[in-house]
Amino acid sequence: MDEPGTVVIVSRQGSDWTWPLDVLAERYAYRVILAHSFSEALTTMATIHVDLAIAEDHEGEDAGLTFLTGLRVSHPDITRIYVTSKSDCISDLALSQAAIYQFLLKPIDASQLGLVVERALETRELARRHRILSREFKISGDGLIFGERKNAVFRTESQRFEKLVYVSEKMAELCELARQAARTELPILIEGETGTGKELLARAIHYN
């Protein structure tokens, strides 16, 4: 992330968040905002960009979890962490409906919270980058990737590798390498994470 993440903590009954706040703000350099009500938290989210929300519930209540469930609809891009007193009071269905990244038990361990928030924001950033890559790595239509335009010239804006449309310079390099590989009889190993188009490149090389 280019800038430190913004974290909103909703604490409605005077819980002591001093140490966790210090850890998140000083050790991890996050922008941390403490809201004392759900309405205050929503007002904050309406005026500034928020990356992660933490809501707590005391024993015998679930208002915090309900709030996070609502955030899934109103602010689906905000990562959600739930803090509660007893884990046996939480149903798997409720956690699933709220799409909680992780729930933590009281008393709050500030160091553990810091690590969880750090991992949550890293995961969020990876998901954001994957969405960007997916937009660049668009497929227009079905059929063979190789075929009609073997000598197509790369454009400066939206470039094209047969049926594969992209704008990234890295993708241009990758497609050129695939063209070269397709002209050989050598075995080719394609590596990469799930969803990055390995099968599409393999098909292109095979049919060419």
3D architecture notes:
This protein is an alpha/beta fold and 208 residues long. It has two domains: 6-135, Rossmann fold, CATH 3.40.50.2300; 137-207, no CATH class. The protein has helices spanning 18-27, 38-47, 63-74, 92-98, 110-136, 169-182, 198-207; strands at 6-10, 31-35, 52-56, 79-84, 102-105, 138-139, 159-161, 164-166. Strands 2-1-3-4-5 form a five-stranded parallel sheet, with helices on both faces. A three-stranded antiparallel sheet has the order 6-8-7. Strand 3 (52-56), helix 3 and strand 4 form a beta-alpha-beta unit. Helix 1 (18-27) packs across helix 5 and helix 6 packs parallel to helix 7. The longest helix is centred in the middle third of the chain and has 27 residues, at 110-136. The two termini are 40 Å apart. Mean pLDDT is 78; it is low at 139-158.
Number of strands: 8
Quickly give the CATH architecture of the largest domain.
3-Layer(aba) Sandwich
Overall average residue pLDDT: 78
Strand order of the largest sheet: 2-1-3-4-5
Assembly status: single chain
